[in-house]
Amino acid sequence: MLLRSVLLAVQALQLAGALDLPAGSCTFEENTCGFDSVFEFLPWILNEEGHYIYVDTSFAKQGEKAVLLSPDLQAEEWSCLRLVYQIATSSGSPSDPSRLNLYMRFEDESFDRLFWSAKEPSDSWLIASLDLQNSSQKFKILIEGVLGHGNTSSIALFEIKMTTGYCIECDFEENHLCGFVNHWNPNVNWFVGGGNTRNSNSSLPQDHTLKSELGHYMYVDSIYVKHFQEVAQLISPMTTAPMSGCLSFYYQLQQRNDNIFSVYTRDAAGLYEEIWKAGDPGNSVWNLAEAEFSAPYPKEVIFEVAFNGPKGGYVALDDISFSPVHCQNQTEHPFSALEASCNFEEDLCNFYQDKEGSGWTRVKVKPNLYRAGDHTSGLGYFLLADTKFTSQPGYIGRLYGPSLPGNQQYCLRFYYAISGFLKMSDTLAVYIFEENHVVQDKIWSVLESPRGVWMQAEITFRKPMPTKVVFMSLCKSLWDCGLVALDDITIELGSCWSPEKLLLPPGECTFEQDECIFTQERRNRSSWQRRRGETPTSYTGPKGDHTTGVGYYMYIEASHLVYGQKARLLSRPLRGVTGKHCLTFFYHMYGAGTGLLNVYLKKEGDSEESLLWRRRGEQSISWLRALIEYSCERQHQIIIEAIRGMSVRSDIAIDDIKFQAGSCAEMEDKSQQSSGYSEDLNEIEY
Asked: Which keywords, in A-to-Z order, does the entry hold (predicted)?
């Protein structure tokens, strides 16, 4: 193992704070501080000399894992969890590397949330910094080490530390520098200043935190600069929770004219944004700087100094802090994803139309065997444009979104459905309207689409100036016009394709990759099938999935079954918790011979299953939403059962399953609650 090379550095780090460890922290000197190995898995081994715990292939096989569980914790204030670890392996790049995962287990949830994961091997210790948002919920930390391929694979934990504050804050008094790292440059680098680095002949300052010889700070000096514009970068940990507010720090500049000191943010895709630049001449006192910092998705802060030559002096940095309150010089209204999104259930939200006339109408239809309802629930409101009854030749309907601050990257998602057009191209388009320049830039338009199916569109865009999103529906000729429907518009900061947006939360399943936590029960030799597009039999089954319109869903193919035959999906065993849970999913029951769809609760130790919800017979050509509220303090399973009806037109489909802690109190259709078991066709007025 490659552990001994890091012990001296880690011992200094551990001893500095071992006398007063906060809750949720441990240096593994004599014990595991209340962190326990979970019995069902490999044990974490405490090194005989202290300093760390580990698991390796000398005691286990590839693929086996060790799980460490913390005592009950609570973060009533924003906190930072730091993990000092090492993943070591034999030489080469194994296709199946070891992995270290960290989960959060909340007391009222049946699923553990994957919070962080690492698999990169190293020959020294690494630091992970994880932001914990303040919450009154109690939780446990679950650390899972999974051994990969290799005869000498090992995973070690040297320290776990949970402290109040933000992970991007630092006074540089700790040996691990709060997870800040210097981007190495052959000539200019950031170093730790203060302490023994300063003597009576030094031009370097005292630190700002302690204002004495004992304190520390970071500095970069130009003495070894050899080229014009040589750059030194000090990089913060990447944020792991959304935050917005004021970033402040203290700095000193020497020889201001020969260096450029700037602060940038950088996201996971490498996109830089300057948020501050030194403008005052250098002096020998600590200056306070403030910069507006917004990180709705993972970002890191980069303190960058560019020197023009070897006489550029030095730049010193200390006491980086963050406040969720915006800086005093903040003038622009911050972006709110809630204000920029709408499902049209109550009104148009912050969207509006041209004053000349209303091109879009908010409607609510009765979903039945001929017409589909909205995308949100199948029973709610959506926007409709370009009908044959209201459109005129040359008709254009524009829907404007709220103003969006400039110089930000946005992800626009919405659902649309089109039917009745002879020519579909450009019947619906999205433009970006730059307010200051009255310029409209088309960023998306319909080329071709399955008719009558709710389709998802995703668009990532970025503009330097304040903008608005404009949805435009076009009817060139009265005889070409059909129906254009729009629903569930969301606008978020960041790329639509960033990893954190693509990863589904625990307890959610769209069936896009696999069957998630569900498995088939095959005792009746019948099964659910995963499919995309239409089902093989006409006049039954969906035309597309609910998630995107072109993705996957689960269904039973009635032509392969006989009347009364069952197909059952079983969830994996779920952890029992106190309080209510809400299970939501979308179902499709269209066809003259449609049978039954049931949801059962199977408690550990019980031989009988409890019926939670049922639908019988043909319901609608639309996807409809089910909301099921239940409570269970024991380990349990959820079972989804479909029963074939009297004819081959009995395909039943499900999609977009979601488990959530809490009640289904805000559901819109009370008849779909777990109590009632209504088996009639859903009815709702126009």
From this structure: Signal
Q: How far apart are CA 122 and CA 72, in angstroms?
A: 31
Residue spans of the chain under pLDDT 70? 1-20, 91-95, 150-151, 195-203, 255-257, 280-283, 329-334, 356-358, 368-370, 386-395, 421-425, 437, 449-450, 477-480, 499-502, 524, 666-686
CA dihedral 537, 538, 539, 540 (to 10 degrees): 20
- Right CATH number for 352-496 from 3.40.50.300, 2.60.40.640, 2.60.120.200, 3.40.50.150? 2.60.120.200
Backbone φ and ψ for 135, nearest 5 degrees, come out as -160, 150
User: What is the DSSP secondary-structure string of 73-89?
Assistant: EE-SS-EEEEEEEEEE-
Q: Report the pLDDT value the prediction gives residue 682, as an integer from 0 to 100.
A: 30
Distance CA 427, CA 677 (A): 42
Task: Give the per-residue pLDDT at 144.
Answer: 95
CATH architecture of residue range(s) 177-323: Sandwich (2.60)
* pLDDT value for 296: 85
pTM over 0.85: no
Q: Does domain 4-164 have CATH number 3.90.1150.10?
A: no
CB 188 within 8 A of CB 307: yes
Overall fold of domain 508-672: Jelly Rolls (2.60.120)
Q: Which of 559, 153, 569, 624 lies closest to 368, judged by CA?
A: 624
Which residue(s) pair with 491 in the sheet? 412
**CA nearest to 240, candidates 503, 63, 444, 56:** 503
Structure letter (DSSP) for residue 14: H
Intervals of CATH 2.60.120.200 along the chain: 4-164, 177-323, 352-496, 508-672
CA distances from 244 to 115, 162, 292, 337 (A): 20, 21, 8, 13
Three-class secondary structure of residue 145 per DSSP: strand
Instruction: Say which DSSP state 257 is in.
Output: G
Nearest to 459 by CA among 441, 446, 442, 444: 444
Q: What does the CA dihedral 665, 666, 667, 669 come to, rounded to 10 degrees?
A: 90
Are 73 and 136 spatial neighbours (Cβ–Cβ below 8 Å)? no
Give the closest residue to 24 by CA, choosing from 81, 94, 108: 81
Cα 205 to Cα 191: distance, rounded to the nearest angstrom: 13
- Predicted confidence at residue 17, as pLDDT, reads 44
Tell me how far apart the alpha carbons of residues 366 and 377 are, in angstroms, rounded to a whole number.
Answer: 12
